[in-house]
Write a structure and sequence with these properties.
- The protein is an alpha/beta fold.
- It folds into 3 domains: 2-66, no CATH class; 72-104 and 125-316, Endonuclease Chain A (Endonuclease, Chain A); 331-495, Endonuclease, Chain A (2-Layer Sandwich).
- 42% of the residues lie in helices and 20% in strands.
- The strands form 2 sheets. The protein has a 16-stranded mixed beta sheet that branches. A two-stranded parallel ribbon has the order 10-16.
- Helix 12 (385-400) links the parallel strand 11 (373-379) and strand 12.
Length: 496
C-alpha cells in the first residue's frame, strides 16, 4: 500500500504540469487545424478566439460544430454528384430531355438565369403549374391527397419527421399505399429526425416500403456531425407532381404546438417538366444514403419509370437549384447574392434566421443605398435564441442603411422566400444564414413569373399586418446587456 500511496502523491504532483501540457497540445493542434481548414478569414478568426477563450471546450466545440470533415461518405457523395450531373462516365439519370431556353422578361431575368446555370442549377423548364401554400394544414391536405392518388411510387425526403400525430398519420398513409403495391421510399435526416424511433417504421417496411437515414449518427466512426445536414423537403408522386418548400412533417407545422401556436410557412406544389429535377435530386440523395440506384436497369429499376415526359402547359418557368457541402460552389448563396445585386425596385425576404455572410450583407446594403425597397421579415418568437440574438446584431446594421425590418408576431415564421422586383422569386428550404448557404444540403425553386411574384407579394403584405416594424431610433436604444449578448452571439455566425 505504501508504494501505491507514493505513486498517487507523485501523480498529484505531476497532474498540473500534465494538464498544462495537454492543453497546449490541444490548443496548438486545434489552431493549426482551423488555419488549414477554414477558407474565410472571419470564420478562422472567430474559431481561434473560441479556442483561446474557452480552454478544452473550445476545441471540442470546433470538432462538433466547426469542422466539416469530408470523410469517405462525403467523398463518395462528391464522386456520385459528378456521375449524376454528367461529370462522370455513368449514364445520365434523366431519360427525358430537359426543356431549356431563355427566361422570359427583363434583362435581369436573363442575367439571373445565366448565373444559376453557371453555378450548377438544373436547366430552366417552361410550362409548369405552381400552387403556393401559405398554411401548413392546406399544404398537408394537398400532399396527403397526392399520396393517396399514387399509382407507381412515392418518394419523400425531409429534414424532420416527428413521431407525433401528424408523423404517424403520414406513415400510416404510406403503409397503406405500400400494401397496395406502390413503391414507397422515405429518406430522413438523422440529426433533424433524432426523435424518430425505428419501431415506428416497421409497419411501413413490412409492407414493402423502404426507409433510409441521411448521414447516420455514429460516435464510433466520428459521425456526430451537427453540420452537413440534409435540410431539403421533398415529396414526389409518380414523377408527375412534386412538393417542396419549408414544411417538415410534424404537429408544429400544422399549428398544433402550444409554444409556437400558428405556424406560417411557404410550400409549393409543382406539376410539369420541373418535377423531373426534383426527382433527380431525390434519386441522387437516395442512391447516396441507401445505396440503391434508381437508374440501374440490371436491377429492373429503370430510370424512365420515375420520370414522365411532360411538355407542360402551365404558365410558370421554374428552375430547380440545390446546394450542399459536396460541391465547391455554394449555388443558392451565389444566386441570392446575384439576385440582390440585380434588383432595381424590390428585395423582399422572409426567413426565420438572418445571419448573412459579409458578401450578402454588403449586397443588401448596396441595394438600400441605391433606393431599392429592401424589406426583411423575421421572427418575433424564436425557436432558437442564439441565431435570434445574432440576427438582431445584423438587423441593427440593416436599419441604419434604410432596410425595413419586421418581426412576425402572429406565431412562428418559417417561410424561406425571396422576391426580386416584379418577376423573380425563390421558394424553398434555404434560410438566409450561413448554415443553409454554406453547411447544409438545401433545395429551392427559382420562379421567373410576374404572376407568382404577385401572389407571394400579396401573402408577404398580409404577413406585415401581423408584424412589428422596428424603429431604427428605438432599436438603437435597446439595453446594453442585449447589445452585448448580440455581439457575443454574432461571433458564432460562421456556424449559425
Amino acid at each position: 500500500m505504501t508504494w501505491l500511496t507514493g505513486l498517487w502523491h507523485d501523480m498529484v504532483d505531476w497532474l498540473p504540469a500534465l494538464l498544462v501540457l495537454l492543453h497546449l497540445l490541444i490548443f496548438w493542434a486545434t489552431i493549426v487545424w482551423i488555419l488549414m481548414t477554414k477558407v474565410e478569414s472571419t470564420s478562422a478568426v472567430a474559431w481561434c478566439l473560441i479556442v483561446i477563450l474557452v480552454p478544452y471546450f473550445g476545441a471540442l466545440f470546433f470538432v462538433m460544430f466547426g469542422y466539416q470533415h469530408v470523410d469517405r461518405p462525403l467523398r463518395r457523395k462528391r464522386k456520385q454528384l459528378e456521375q449524376f450531373r454528367g461529370g462522370g462516365t455513368g449514364e445520365p439519370l434523366e431519360p427525358v430531355p430537359a426543356l431549356n431556353g431563355a427566361a422570359p422578361g427583363s434583362p435581369c431575368l436573363h442575367s439571373l438565369q445565366r448565373v444559376a446555370d453557371r453555378v450548377g442549377a438544373h436547366p430552366l423548364t417552361h410550362g409548369n403549374h405552381v400552387d403556393f401554400y401559405h398554411h401548413g394544414p392546406d399544404a398537408f391536405t394537398a400532399m396527403l391527397e397526392a399520396i393517396r392518388s399514387a399509382q407507381h411510387h412515392i418518394h419523400l425526403e425531409f429534414f424532420i419527421v416527428q413521431p407525433d400525430e401528424l408523423g404517424r398519420h403520414v406513415l400510416e398513409e404510406l403503409t397503406t399505399k405500400a400494401n397496395a403495391g406502390v413503391q414507397v421510399r422515405l429518406l430522413y435526416d438523422a440529426m433533424g429526425s433524432h426523435r424518430m424511433r425505428r419501431s415506428l417504421l416497421v409497419p411501413l417496411q413490412e409492407a414493402g416500403g423502404e426507409t433510409s437515414v441521411f448521414l447516420p449518427l455514429n460516435p464510433l466512426r466520428r459521425r456526430i456531425q451537427i453540420n452537413m445536414r440534409n435540410h431539403r423537403k421533398l415529396l414526389i408522386v409518380d414523377g408527375v407532381v412534386g412538393f417542396t418548400g419549408g414544411l417538415n412533417i410534424g404537429d408544429e407545422y400544422v399549428g398544433k404546438d402550444p409554444y409556437f401556436g400558428y405556424w406560417r410557412d411557404t410550400h409549393l406544389r409543382l406539376r410539369g417538366p420541373g418535377v423531373a429535377d426534383l426527382q433527380r435530386v431525390f434519386c441522387e440523395d437516395w442512391d447516396y444514403a441507401a445505396g440503391e440506384s434508381l437508374r440501374d436497369g440490371a436491377h429492373a429499376k429503370i430510370g424512365a419509370s420515375y420520370f414522365k415526359t411532360d411538355p407542360g402547359d402551365g404558365p410558370y418557368p421554374v428552375q430547380v437549384i440545390d446546394s450542399g457541402p459536396d460541391r465547391d460552389l455554394k449555388s443558392i448563396r451565389e444566386v441570392y447574392f446575384a439576385a440582390i445585386l440585380q434588383a432595381r425596385k424590390r428585395v423582399w425576404i422572409a426567413s426565420p434566421y438572418f445571419v448573412p455572410d459579409a458578401g450578402i450583407l454588403d449586397a443588401l446594403r448596396l441595394a438600400a443605398y441605391l433606393g431599392v425597397d429592401v424589406r426583411f421579415l423575421g421572427q418575433f418568437q424564436p425557436d432558437k435564441w442564439i441565431p435570434q440574438y445574432a440576427a438582431q446584431y445584423y438587423w441593427n446594421q440593416m436599419l441604419q442603411v434604410g432596410v425595413k425590418v419586421y418581426q412576425y408576431s402572429r406565431g412562428m415564421l418559417h417561410s424561406k422566400v425571396m422576391m426580386i422586383d416584379d418577376d423573380w422569386a425563390s421558394v424553398g428550404s434555404a434560410n438566409l444564414d450561413n448554415r443553409s448557404l454554406h453547411l447544409n444540403f438545401e433545395l429551392n425553386c427559382l420562379i421567373y413569373s410576374e404572376k407568382a411574384v404577385a401572389e407571394l407579394a400579396a401573402a408577404f403584405e398580409s404577413d406585415l399586418e401581423y408584424a412589428i416594424r422596428l424603429d431604427p431610433k428605438v432599436f438603437a436604444r435597446r439595453p446594453f446587456a442585449n447589445r452585448l449578448l448580440e455581439n457575443a452571439c454574432r461571433l458564432m455566425s460562421p456556424v449559425l
